[in-house]
Amino acid sequence: MLVQSCSSKKEESAEKPVARVLDVNLYPSDLKNIVPVDMSKKDSSELIKRFIEKWIQDELVLKYAEKNLTSEQLNIEKEVTEYRKNLIIYSYQTELIKQKLDTVVTQQEIEKYYNEHSASFVLKDNIVNVNYVKLNKKTPGIEKARKWYVSSNPKDIENLRSFCIQFAENYFLDDKTWLLFDDILKEVPIEDYNSELFLKSSKNIEVADSLSVYFLKIKGYKIKNSPSPLSFEKENIRNIIINKRKLKLIDEMKSNVYQEAKENKNFVIY
Fold first, then answer.
1. What is the pLDDT of residues 224-261, one digit of tens each?
2. Which backbone phi and psi does 145 adopt, to 5 degrees?
3. Cβ contacts of 217 within 8 Å, gap of 6 or more
4. Same domain for 80 and 68?
């Protein structure tokens, strides 16, 4: 749209056009800001070529559309006015949110929202709380890791963490985080024909492939359609709270603008 408006204004321009579609010209000055400063000559030539081709295509489609639409369909001033109005309002609201929105959400607020809306938080998938370690079969001290991963002793868990930092190909040792069981299945070569039955009957799992050995300790699980734990919903709740603040901020702005205009008699309803 910008190029089109720039092009059509230059009927009397001294510039030599670089392309033309019927009565509309594209000039070198219209290409002025499309090439990044640090781009090579070869890449910039290719970028300009693609730009010109797209401009030609857009102009041709525009001309074809103008030719095939009725005069009523071509009268888009109302739509353009509405679009401009909505765009200006949106830009102002975006700037208002940027300047005024409080994005700090406390743990207390998250817990309060969770407790008040607990019925809304239902799991769509099975989730697990796990310790997971992947080691190359030739890793030194693998027997120690085998012992540590099944242990609940804090010292053993810390030993396992230090061991994983040095040797593990991949690992996850976070007691507070729930993971999707399907994501674990992507990492560990487990034959799972019935996830719910597997989770109910398994605790410490060791499997291997040709190169690696996998240790998996399932410390907790929740089946889909059961209540979702707070820790799993924390980020979701935070986003919900912030979005509610956005809507409230916008509603308050609209109300304040309306009341001020009413007091100043800036509008009349006949």
1. 999 999 999 999 999 999 999 999 999 999 999 999 99
2. -60, -40
3. 130, 131, 132, 149, 150, 203, 204, 205
4. no
Q: Tell me if residue 110 falls in helix, strand or coil.
A: helix
Q: Which domain holds residue 58?
A: 2-74
Burial class (CB in 10 A: 0-12, 13-18, 19+), 125: middle
Helix/strand/coil percent split, the chain, to 5: 55, 15, 30
Residue 29 lies in a domain: yes
In angstroms, rounded to a whole number, what is the distance separating the alpha carbons of residues 49 and 32? 13
pLDDT per residue as tens digits for the range 130-159: 999 999 999 999 999 999 999 989 999 999
Own/partner contacts of 208-211, CB < 8 Å, gap of 24 or more, are 208/137, 211/136, 211/137
- Is the pTM for the entire model greater than 0.70? no
User: Greatest CA separation found in the chain?
Assistant: 87
How far apart CA 137 and CA 96 sit, in angstroms, is 57
Position 54 in a domain: yes
